[in-house]
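Slides due. Your pick:
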Amino acid sequence: MNSSYNKYIAHSGLDFKQYQYDGVVWCVDNEKGGLGGSGGGSGGGSGGGSGGGSGGGSGGGSGGGSGGFIADEMGLGKTITMIGTFLCNLVKRTLIVLPPVLIDQWYKQIYKTTGHKAVLYYGQKKKKIDLLGLGFCIVITSYAHIALNKKKKKGGEGDVEGLNDIHRVQWDRIVFDEGHHLRNRNTYLYKGALQLKSPIKWIVSGTPIQNGKADFYNLCRIIGYSDFKKVPILKRTKKEVGILIPDMTANLESVSWKNENEMKLSSCIHGIIGGGGSGSGVGSSTNITYWLHNRFSSGVLPLYLRARQMCIYPKLVKGFLGEMVRDKIITREEYADIVKYSSKLDAVIEAVLKNKDNGNGKIIFCSFRSEIDDIAARLRDNGIERVVTFDGRNGAGARKTILCERNDVLILQIQTGCEGLNLQEHYSEIYFVSPFWNPAVEDQAVARCHRIGQKKEVMVYRFEMGGLEVEGLSVSNEVSDSNEVSDSNEAEGLNSMDNYIMCVQERKRIIAREIIS
């Protein structure tokens, strides 16, 4: 074991890190059934004691098969740990399932550190690959390729809807990188993952619990554990393993509403969600509130999105506003005034411009494409030349180019760019235009910069709207996956959707900590 790992480190050119070695020992013991319910951690060496802080570790016991969770904090090198495990415990067929953005990264890392060329079962190339005829190999594929087809197959006994060759192979090890993608058991992706056959299954994710307890239970079923208290979990932080990197400083910017009509409409929308009417002293708010009640009589859930969009960039709701103009609820002049302004984006632009000459690369995380485009245009208009955008509209080639270049500002759609990217070399400032429902997504986003290799202090700026005169929203102790408002009086005085989402985030963080620890 020690000899194999040392050869791996020497061949790869990596520095020996005790905690990574401890992690490989822990994984290999687990795969060979060595944990046996005795508790986590590999013992001996830095990070060993914390290695399985929450992982009972059933190994080959009655709770499930071999494998478990690799939930180390982002930036500790979970990929290096897994490849080390491959080399120290050779098996015939290993399957790695991951988001498409990570395929190239894993392929290059495996080749660099082992000299092995993994089989890419992805895109059109997969048609030329005979999975059932492969010998010793590592196969890399995306989550889309393990999902079941929606159309149920008809055929002989034992057929399951949508199975393909990847489900018919008897794998010897399966690794689900960013495995939290499998948390929803009602998807064809989840059902497809259940059909994959292997005695060893790993969930690799720094944020396995994204919304609530159900996430953890569903992932446990994927890797074959029914006794949730015996699932092996390797969970360590940078601090626990003694890694010293520059500090991260978080700043919360409270933004005031600058435009009266922008605030009026937001007050009406928030008022209905909060169970009341509209804000006080709003001229035509009675008509707006009445119209909103009728328009959303079946439920207020769609108004969550509208309230969030109003907190970010009112132009996002221009279709919705067009209906109000048509029904003579607001005038064309009021419509034009509302979509002309964005108090939030004004504040973000001002903050970025204030820091533009400090020499730090800046990442701005957004949610909507038109929001991305507006920020990019305004920054360029204000003299920042190297501004690039990264979202679902970029092809694979363009994405590689963008990520390799040093730019002044990189604007990312958070769902596209929060995972797997290593951006610490060029960037050390992060701006979140608005809070995201899932706190783990933000944690993943911050980890793109705050990780091993970062040389500067990382500054994180978050922006929230406030100052609406509406009945406060409330958050219950149990947050549902739909993020619905409850009747609980917990967390009073949340008077904007930004504020409400941040409280939901904190509830979800508490749930995740309770489960993992």
